Amino acid sequence: MPASFDHTPSRWEKRAEQTLTRTRIFDLHSTYYYHPVRGTGRDFYVMHSPDWVNVVALTPERRMVLVRQFRFGIDDFSIEIPGGVMDHPGEDAVAAGLRELREETGYAGANARLLGRVHPNPAIMSNRCHLVLVEQCKRIAGPAWDADEEIEVTLASVDEVYEWARTGRITHSLVLDALLLLAPVWEKMRQQDPPPAHVN
Amino acid sequence: MPASFDHTPSRWEKRAEQTLTRTRIFDLHSTYYYHPVRGTGRDFYVMHSPDWVNVVALTPERRMVLVRQFRFGIDDFSIEIPGGVMDHPGEDAVAAGLRELREETGYAGANARLLGRVHPNPAIMSNRCHLVLVEQCKRIAGPAWDADEEIEVTLASVDEVYEWARTGRITHSLVLDALLLLAPVWEKMRQQDPPPAHVN
Questions:
Q1: How far is B193 from chain A (nearest CA, A)?
Q2: Cys-Cys link to A53, which of A130, A187, B10, B142 (CB 3.0-4.6 A)?
Q3: Are B101 and B55 in contact (CB under 8 A)?
Q4: Which domain range does residue B23 map to?
Q5: Tell me: the pLDDT tens digits for B15-68?
Q6: A33: left (phi over 0), alpha (psi -120 to 50) or beta
Q7: Residues A112 and A146 in one domain
Q8: What is the Cα–Cα distance from A36 to B4, expressed in whole angstroms?
Q9: Does residue A23 lie in a domain region?
Q10: Does A118 touch chain B (CB under 8 A)?
Q11: Could you say which of A24, A128, A153 has the minimum Cβ distance to residue B5?
Q12: Mutate to test the interface with B, among A130, A174, A175 (most CBs of B within 10 A)
């Protein structure tokens, strides 16, 4: 650990757990944690959901595949990168990302790899979000939406996407995470192989 | 909107809302949404929480103030930037950030300003997270933790923090968002006024 001028916090001990609510997308648990030094404890709320995956999909012209859809949490539209929920705990994140990309946008690509993994909210959510990069993406089919999905697919240059993140046009925290982890990779890609001057 | 080759998604209409669970930190609602074109609708789950604020706090030596604490969501420790919950909807985000910085770490600073606002999760959460930058931060008091807080305060160089984000040592999505929005500001700060060669 880095140098510190404070004592080290204790690891709380999970003693009991009960499910308060089950929904299609997560279970809400009330979990009793005990502090071994303080000798006290209480219940904390934790949302348990499968891991999620979000995908940075680049076309041969180095444009990013974006999706725009109505989001019920904010009761408004949101511009994001494709993504979704892992099918099962053991599912490969890259495979899941390619599946979600195909289902939401009809795009498929090559050289798919993991950019990184983040925690959507370590305080109240137990799951992770896997961030995947796919290159050479082309639309090979129509989308295959879930019953409640209705998605507008959009292409934008990577520079445009970073500008939209800075100016608040893209606000989804996990999409911004993908852009942070993409930045050094994108810089290297641009140096090694500049985008073509004109679109094919 | 950017160019698109898809139809524009409809805006779903909120028709009814009920509270499934109330916790100290959020309420879970089941909200009935109606799709005006499809003529169908159903319930969606939305977590309603006050807005959050996270703070990038830099010392005169341009080191970032970090907090390490046990997080119940991931049942493990997490290295983050200071932050917390807004006291009330009308609270000024910068003032809230300075309050949380002071309470969690005992640090106060100058030239506090908003880096940006993000949505922690537009799909299932209604709230925003405000990201604040504070400079010239110094420890002026001891922390004033909430009953269940136990926080290790750490300083690290900004380069170290970005490295930890890239290598998965920092995984909190909202902390990574702050680093994305800080990047262009930090680049300008470094060009205009390079960090001192030695620490005061």
A1: 22
A2: A130
A3: yes
A4: 13-48
A5: 999 999 999 889 999 999 999 999 999 999 999 999 999 999 999 999 999 999
A6: beta
A7: yes
A8: 56
A9: yes
A10: yes
A11: A153
A12: A174
